[in-house]
């Protein structure tokens, strides 16, 4: 179980780095193709890491599932909701990256 949490931490750190890169490209108005390309690349990394994060959270949620009980544990529910949020993030960042391509 500890290795799953470590994998999750590694993915979250990669996502944080991509978020910082996106933040640095968006501090001003993107003026050139290089700025837009950097923003798109950061968004694509966020999309990829969000998908990985969703998978990892799903696996952890399954580990905390309570088969045979009427209700799942609070940990399972929270991890399941976090996985859904990570999936939504990936969808949004993918759409944003595509919008940059269409704008060019």
Describe the structure.
- Residues 1-35 are annotated as: Disordered.
- The longest helix is centred in the middle third of the chain and has 31 residues, at 33-63.
- The chain has one domain (2-103).
- It is an all-alpha fold.
- The protein has three helices and no strands.
- 20% of the residues are buried.
- Helix 1 (2-25) packs antiparallel against helix 2 and helix 2 runs antiparallel to helix 3 (74-103).
Could you state the order of secondary-structure elements as H and E? HHH
Low-confidence regions: none
What is the distance, rounded to the nearest whole angstrom, between the alpha carbons of the first and last residues? 45 Å
Structural class: mainly alpha
Taken as a percent bin, the fraction of beta residues is under 5%
Tally of separate helices = 3
How much is the radius of gyration in Å? 17 Å
Proportion in helices: over 70%
Count of discrete structural domains: 1
Choose one word for the global shape.
elongated
Average predicted local confidence, pLDDT: 89
Number of strands: 0
* Biggest sheet character: none
Question: How would you describe this structure in keywords?
Answer:
0% strand, mainly alpha, single chain, 104 residues, 3 helices
